[in-house]
Each structure stands twice: as structure tokens, then as C-alpha cells.
Design brief:
Blueprint: E1 4-5, E2 8-9, E3 24-25, E4 28-29, H1 41-45, E5 54-55, E6 58-59, E7 66-70, E8 74-75, H2 82-99, E9 102-104, H3 127-133, E10 137-146, E11 149-158, E12 163-173, H4 177-193, E13 202-207, E14 214-219, E15 226-227, E16 234-240, E17 246-252, E18 258-263, E19 271-273, E20 283-288, E21 294-300, E22 305-311, E23 318-319, E24 327-332, E25 338-343, E26 350-355, E27 362-363, E28 371-376, E29 383-389, E30 392-398, E31 405-409, E32 415-420, E33 426-431, E34 438-443, E35 450-451, E36 459-464
Parallel strand pairs: 7-9, 7-10, 8-10
Antiparallel strand pairs: 1-12, 2-12, 3-6, 4-5, 10-11, 11-12, 13-14, 13-36, 14-15, 16-17, 17-18, 18-19, 20-21, 21-22, 22-23, 24-25, 25-26, 26-27, 28-29, 29-30, 30-31, 32-33, 33-34, 34-35
Helix pairs in contact: 2-4
């Protein structure tokens, strides 16, 4: 389903996200060769590692969410159906809950009307009553049929200032109210925080629930899980095109692993890609740069895994690393200027940074004896990765300068393969905490962990898709 948005902002400003206690971090970076003083219990476990040791004290906290009163939308024109209108409101509120930064106000707290007024005519709201209700925002709306589609028109109020914050329009399939509700919810989140919500995005992952390892896609909240491939070949390492029109993955049929595309748009031709590049050599772990025009990938020419760069349409292959050690798992910075990757050139797997042409290489991690699966946040602030502790993996964050480094997901069993949401507010990862691997989502600071899969099989290697363009 293709959704159409048409927004016009009615106010010069926009509300800002209100931060609660948040994460309080005290950083003391040790000098190479000298012991670091103090430290958390987890940092002390790793004191035997070489290099500077970041020591952090973390005070749990989080975001204080906006409260939004979502009124029951007004029906306009041909009947839409009372049940559909109520379902739409439920889906909008569910999308807000998923955001973690905007939550629906309990209907029982309403001191204003439950029903939205018509949007045409004078803009009016009893702001005093809604302030007393505890609402930061009120969402009014209309819904109407347009053939086989539904159109939702919105007016989002800033209650504190008693003025319209934003108006907008979202169009979608009338039989997919959950999708339309997610799109409306993401609009509300963007109006209130300045960053679009991610309830309407999707996650690709690998599952063997049918007996074969296939590529699957699901909604960000874990609903609508469905296979995107059906064959006996082994699939792995999904990667979205930056425009969301396809998913790249590696398939291995017993000869050599290579790249394939699934199509989400008529503009994309599904099937193998770059088959003529480095013919006869394995190609895996491909990662598109932010433009979608170049692909960093792993291959082996002289016995060691190295990183390469090639145009998506083919052409000359550029070698980025040249070392007897293994170089794996490339991930792009959001501006496309740098690549973080994993190498064991120091004697154990660690994270390294380099420019997109392979120059200016430097080691990033010194804490932990086995670090892997880096993922750069879309806002550029953090690199998430997995690190082995006592035989299992936890998920940590490190900033690109390497000065701040701390755990966010810790469990007695393994948590692996983090992938960021487009708004940098959430991470999806795989975990064996229930005895087999399932996918979980959590806020960027490790709070609000929720399981997304649980039917059957092993579910691994999640890749969070982009916002729809």
C-alpha cells in the first residue's frame, strides 16, 4: 500500500522533546599504559583488556513522553462505518505507544469532547479543559472514503499554547486500517518532537521457521510477519535499499555466496545482482552507502576476508583493506564519509574506523575481547555493537570518537546483531534469552524491551528499514 502525505505547518515553532532524568554519564578515560580509577562492575570485569578504559556511572532514566488526546475522527461523505472509525483510533494510539515519546491520554481523563469537530470553519479548542485533563496535545480529524481508499485529515493542537501545531493528510488502503493508523501516529510524533515516528516502518530478518532459512519482513511492532523469499538456498545478512524499494540479501546454494535483491517497487528488478563482479569469489555482508549507489562488501581473494567497494550497477571494484587479518561487517556513517568495520588485526575482533576510500584507519574499541556487528545510528551519535562477556554477548554503545562506551542491553544469555530505527530512538536485536533466538526491540538506552517474534524457529539478523519516501 502506498500512502500519500500532504502536510502544511500552521505554526512557526514546534514543541521540543522533554527529557526526564535521562542517562547521567560520568566519563574518566584512562591513559594508555596506566590503570583507570573507579569504574562500574562491568567495566571492572574487562580491566585486563589493552588500551584506554572508559569508566561510566549510568543513572537509569528516559524520556518524559508527551500525552496526546486522540479524538474520535469525524466521518465525512459516504459512510465509513463506526467500527472502522473506532479501529482507526485504536491503531493510532497503538502507534503512539510504540513511539515511546508520545502516549495516548486515557479516555477516562477527558474533560473535553471525545468526538472531533468538523475541521472546516473556525479553529476552536477548549484548551483549559484539556490542560486540566493532562493533555499536551489534542488530535482532531476527519475520515472519508475515496474509492477503495480512506483519507484522514488531521489537526494537531499544542494545548499549552492553545494553537494549531500542524495540519496534515494521510491516505491509505481502507482495508488496512492498521497501516493507516501507524502513518497517522508517525505524523503526530513528528509534529510534537520534530522527528518522524517509526511505527509505519518495517524490519527485515532471517528465519528458519519453515525448515529453510528465508528472508522475512514484518511491521516494526512485530505484526504482519511474512516471507519475502521461498527457495532451498541459505539466506543471510539482509540490507534495505536506502529508499526502501528493495532488500538486499546473501544467498548460498552450495557453490559461492552472492547478492540478491527482492523488489518492493516496479523500479527494482528482483534476482541476483553484481554476479559478474569478482566472479568465482564469495561475496557477502553487503551494505549500501546512504545514496544507495555504492555497496561496501566482504570478499576473499588471497585467503583473508577484505572489504571492497563497488557501484550498485557494477564497474570497477575498489579494495578498501589489505591485511592478513580478517576484515568484516562494514557499516556506513550516516553522511557516507566513513565506514566502521570489524577486524582481528590486533589479535581479537575489534571495531575500526576508516574513510570511505580506506584511508585514515584507526582502532575504535579497546574494551572487550570480542566486538562485532557494528551499526551506526542514523543521527550519527552512536555505534551499537555486540561484545562478548563471560561467553555470551551484550549490546553496547560507543560514540565515534571512542571516548564514551557503555552497555545498554545485558542478559545472562546472548543479545546480538543490533540495528537502528530510522529515528535513532530504538534498536532491534536478536536474543537467545528464551532458549532460542527471537527478535526484540528496545529504546536506545536499553529500556522498554519487547519481544517481536515468537511463533517458531530461529529468528536472527534484523535490519530496520527506512522511512517510506
Amino acid at each position: 500500500m502506498k500512502a500519500v502525505r500532504n502536510r502544511s505547518r500552521r505554526s512557526a515553532g514546534r514543541a521540543a522533546v522533554r527529557l526526564g532524568a535521562g542517562l547521567c554519564m560520568v566519563l574518566m578515560v584512562g591513559t594508555p599504559g596506566l590503570p583507570s580509577g573507579g569504574g562500574t562492575a562491568r567495566a571492572q570485569e574487562l580491566e585486563g583488556e589493552r588500551g584506554p578504559m572508559p569508566t561510566l556511572e549510568i543513572t537509569p532514566g528516559g524520556v518524559t513522553a508527551f500525552k496526546a488526546a486522540v479524538l474520535r475522527f469525524q466521518m465525512v461523505g459516504p459512510p465509513v462505518g463506526e467500527e472502522r472509525v473506532e479501529t482507526l483510533r485504536e491503531e493510532i494510539e497503538r502507534a503512539l505507544v510504540f513511539s515511546g515519546v508520545v502516549v495516548p491520554l486515557d479516555h477516562a481523563a477527558y474533560l473535553g469532547p471525545d468526538q472531533s469537530p468538523p475541521l472546516e470553519g473556525e479553529e476552536r479548542l477548549d484548551c483549559e479543559s484539556w490542560r486540566s485533563s493532562g493533555a499536551d496535545s489534542v488530535v482532531q480529524g476527519e475520515v472519508r472514503r475515496e474509492g477503495e481508499r480512506l483519507r484522514a485529515d488531521l489537526r494537531i493542537w499544542d494545548v499549552a499554547r492553545c494553537r494549531t501545531l500542524e495540519t496534515g493528510r494521510v491516505v491509505g488502503d481502507r482495508d488496512r486500517l492498521e497501516r493507516l493508523g501507524r502513518l497517522v501516529g508517525d505524523e503526530i510524533v513528528e509534529a510534537l518532537t520534530g522527528t518522524r515516528g517509526v511505527a509505519s516502518t518495517e524490519i527485515a530478518f532471517i528465519s528458519d521457521r519453515t525448515g529453510h532459512r528465508e528472508l522475512y519482513v514484518m511491521s516494526a511492532d512485530g505484526r504482519d510477519q511474512r516471507p519475502a523469499t521461498r527457495s532451498d538456498a541459505l539466506k543471510m545478512a539482509p540490507e534495505w535499499l536506502p529508499d526502501g524499494k528493495g532488500v538486499l540479501y546473501v544467498a548460498y546454494d552450495g557453490v559461492q555466496p552472492g547478492f540478491f535483491l527482492t523488489a518492493r517497487s516496479a523500479e527494482i528488478t528482483p534476482g541476483p545482482i553484481l554476479a559478474h563482479v569478482m566472479r568465482g569469489r564469495p561475496k557477502y555482508r553487503g551494505r549500501f552507502d546512504p545514496t544507495g549507489q555504492e555497496l561496501a562488501f566482504v570478499s576473499s581473494v588471497d585467503g583473508a576476508a577484505e572489504l571492497y567497494l563497488v557501484q550498485r550497477r557494477g564497474g570497477e571494484v575498489r579494495r578498501l583493506t589489505d591485511h592478513p587479518a580478517l576484515d568484516l561487517s562494514p557499516a556506513w556513517s550516516p553522511d557516507g564519509r566513513e565506514i566502521v568495520f570489524v577486524s582481528d588485526r590486533s589479535g581479537s575482533p575489534q571495531l575500526y574506523l576508516m574513510k570511505r576510500d580506506g584511508s585514515d584507519l584507526r582502532r575504535l574499541t579497546y574494551t572487550g575481547s570480542y566486538n562485532a556487528s557494528p551499526a551506526w545510528s542514523p543521527d550519527g551519535r552512536w555505534i551499537a555493537y555486540e561484545t562478548r562477556v563471560r561467553g555470551q554477548f551484550d549490546i553496547w554503545l560507543i560514540d565515534p570518537s571512542g571516548q564514551i562506551n557503555f552497555p545498554i542491553i545485558q542478559h545472562a544469555l546472548s543479545d546480538e546483531g543490533p540495528s537502528w530505527s530510522p529515528d535513532s530512538r530504538k534498536l532491534v536485536f536478536s536474543s537467545s534469552r528464551r532458549g532460542r533466538y527471537d527478535l526484540y526491540v528496545a529504546d536506545w538506552n536499553g529500556q522498554n524491551v519487547q519481544r517481536l517474534t515468537g511463533r517458531s524457529g530461529t529468528n536472527i539478523q534484523p535490519a530496520w528499514g527506512p522511512q517510506a519516501r
